[in-house]
Q: What sequence folds into this?
């Protein structure tokens, strides 16, 4: 995948033929993608295919053996960590909340890359208030974290990332602790963040149908480190690609809305 210089600068994130191994064991091979401004990228694949590792590579926490990750046209390895934190906010797969702070105090921690403490900072207060409103947590702002459900805690983690006020938002399996209704609400929120705030989103998910419904592009990883498939959802989620990735046939159809639906074989 050869990418012109102008395109590298124009897009927030470009990955060029990147490969990564843990020791002698290859995990990712010749990974290439372009994350355009204001788009949602869904990263999918079976367990052990390297989805979370890829997010770490995109953030510069790991170094690839070959290829390159370009953030705003510059190699990720040349970015200071604090500047990356002002550009990419992350919702981790398993968020840890070691202290029983209030919701508002926890969300305010997202301001650290910008100023550290937000008290007395009008911009920080605005960002925190906006994050609470977007995630429908404003009424719970003074509640301690220990009083919240798992789904509410997940919303706190997302609100903290929104308060970070970055153009890029990465989420590593944010649907795991949510019921099906909460999953749908979160996907609608991500879609609104893209359309109304212009957020650029990279999302790791096992929910193929939900991800396809909101993603502009998808990246499918394989368990044997073969070259990933990147493209539009309909180009990526084909029966052939899915069987190669998951080791069994999966059916692909269209919902009445036109969105893709991926279903496993009948278990009976």
A:
């Amino acid at each position: 995948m050869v990418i012109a210089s102008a395109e590298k600068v124009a897009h927030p994130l470009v990955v060029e033929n990147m490969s990564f191994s843990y020791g002698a064991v290859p995990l990712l091979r010749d990974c290439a993608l372009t994350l355009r401004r204001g788009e949602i990228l869904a990263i999918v694949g079976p367990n052990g295919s390297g989805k979370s590792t890829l997010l770490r590579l995109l953030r510069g926490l790991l170094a690839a053996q070959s290829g390159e990750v370009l953030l705003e046209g510059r190699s990720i390895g040349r970015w200071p960590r604090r500047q990356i934190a002002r550009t990419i906010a992350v919702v981790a797969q398993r968020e840890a909340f070691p202290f029983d702070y209030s919701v508002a105090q926890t969300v305010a921690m997202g301001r650290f890359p910008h100023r550290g403490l937000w008290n007395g900072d009008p911009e920080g207060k605005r960002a925190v208030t906006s994050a609470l409103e977007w995630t429908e947590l404003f009424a719970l702002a003074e509640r301690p974290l220990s009083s919240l459900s798992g789904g509410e805690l997940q919303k706190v983690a997302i609100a903290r990332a929104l308060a970070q006020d970055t153009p890029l938002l990465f989420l590593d399996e944010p649907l795991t602790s949510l019921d099906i209704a909460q999953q749908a609400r979160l996907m609608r929120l991500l879609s609104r963040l893209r359309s109304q705030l212009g957020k650029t989103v990279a999302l790791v998910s096992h929910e193929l149908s939900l991800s396809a419904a909101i993603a502009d592009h998808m990246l499918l990883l394989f368990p044997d480190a073969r070259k990933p498939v990147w493209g539009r959802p309909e180009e990526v989620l084909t029966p052939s690609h899915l069987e190669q990735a998951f080791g069994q046939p999966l059916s692909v159809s269209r919902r009445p809305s036109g969105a893709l639906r991926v279903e496993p074989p009948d278990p009976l």
Summary: DSSP finds eleven helices and twelve strands in the chain.
